[in-house]
Amino acid sequence: MNTFFKSFFASLLAILVFCILLFLIFGGIVASVSKSLEKEAVKTEPNSVLVLDLNYDIPEQSYRNITFPNPLSRELMPSTGLNDILRAIKAAETDKNIKGIAIQMGVNTNGYATLQEVRDALFQFRKNSDKFIVSYGEMVNQSSYYLGSVADEVYVHPSGYFEFKGLAAQLSFIKGTLDKLGIRTQVFWAGEFKSATEPLRLDQMSEQNREQLRSYVGGLYQLVLEDISQSRKLSTDSLGNIAANLRAWSLKDAVAVGMLDGLLYEDEWQEVLDKKTGADETPTIGLADYTRGLAKETGNWDSQVAVIYAEGNIVDGSGEFGSIGSTSFRKLLKEVREDDEIKAVVIRINSGGGSALASDVIWREIGLLKAEKPVVVSMGDYAASGGYMMACNATKVLARPTTLTGSIGVFFILPEISGFMEDKLGITSDTVLTETHADFPSLVRATTEAETVQLQRMVDDTYMAFKQQVADGRSMDMEQVEALAKGRIWLGTTALDLGLVDALGGLQDAIEAAAELAGLESYRTTDLPKQELEFWEELMLDLSEETTTPPALETLGALMAPYNTVKSYIEHPVVRAELPYILEWK
Questions:
Q1: pLDDT < 50 stretches in the chain
Q2: Strands, E, within 212-338: which ranges?
Q3: Is 194 a catalytic residue?
Q4: Contact 352, 382 (CB under 8 A)
Q5: What is the pTM of this model?
Q6: Which residue in the list 99, 131, 194, 370 is annotated as catalytic?
């Protein structure tokens, strides 16, 4: 027995020592890899050109300190948020080592409010300095040209692609697919323009939806033409004629009509930069490297303006990365309210809404915060439905001219999947009840007439509460709110006329307005929530979310879209204050 215990404890000790050694070795490897992946600040060389390649989905806020290589595409994944893009452009104005900015045009899919925010910052860069901006691209879509046209000169590759044809908003309808699958969607909504449910119950736009989209897209297109007109010295009528008649479809024609300044190969483009900087070989610096090297903001720590970023779908609970969780966001607002060093708050909203309950939770917390210190909302691409519910309770609301806002309306969807379960999967169900409606709401049977009445009543009550929140937040009477509600979407310029917002402006305008309301002459800004991720969170995010999707999987994803849409309603059966759609521009 003694021999057994000696052997047992000796083996146990050996295992323990091995585990400790393994832990130390593994920890060393992790530290080494982490250190190698972290990038030190890159020093900007004299006569440098800052290169802006913004052909990725720009988040509102930079959320990482490390940029990992994409293991499938072997490309560095961009992570620079709008906040740091604006910061970099502003810093470049007075940076003696930066001689100008080069915009790398491409296929840009960002919203026009985001692009307009960057475009306005670039316009100020030109106005406030004697430095140049030039644009170049090979495959250039309309959104990218809208941004690139702010430059002094715009060039495209001689064999490239250039697009300028006007705007088209395209919606996809999946009712036919759901019918084939045997899935019936029981829809309840309030607001005649609240068209979020149309893809599930119609095969084309309703007249109300077509009307509001025509108004929104037409207004947006006019704003886009006006901005391009200012930069290219072409009238909006001329630009409209060029688009309507495809007079810029050929690259040579695009040069001839004044949309482009020339067609250049890459080496010739480099010569343009060399000529402007006076260097034999112009050094360039990318956005990520440049922002990493910028000095930290200085200012009064005792007088801060907190900039809180609210981006993504509004959900109940803590939420996941990329969403606005009511619990976590309420906690953040409460912490800011109780922080005596924070004198004013800017909430940057880029959201099409989500859960009506979650939006209401945040609406209430914003009201409590507003009672203690000024709260200014800055709207991004979208601040609609639940996103507008959040915004309307602020001290002051600013929108971009191209912001999509409003959509004051709600809906509830209860899928009925008994046909799918039985016909496609061979699954049936049976139920024992103690009361008539004990299994209500149910996914495997249609609602009764009495249940239908109750669901519609729930939606109507939520809609009425939403309108009252807007009335209280915007100091309107209910008749005024009713006239501009009904689930209708509005362009930022129209929202200003209707009293839904107080002024037109960008993020910096909102920060300055908040500081003015708080009576601050000296202050510093603080970005919240803090978005630094741990090493393994960074790694897992890159491996799971930022890899290139093979075409076959993209096709499969499209086929699974109807299932995923219905699945979300099954998993989260809540009343939704949600934007009717995220527009797909063509």
A1: 1-2, 4-6, 8-9, 12, 28-38, 65-77, 534-562
A2: 262-263, 284-286, 304-311, 314-315, 324-325
A3: yes
A4: yes
A5: 0.85
A6: 194
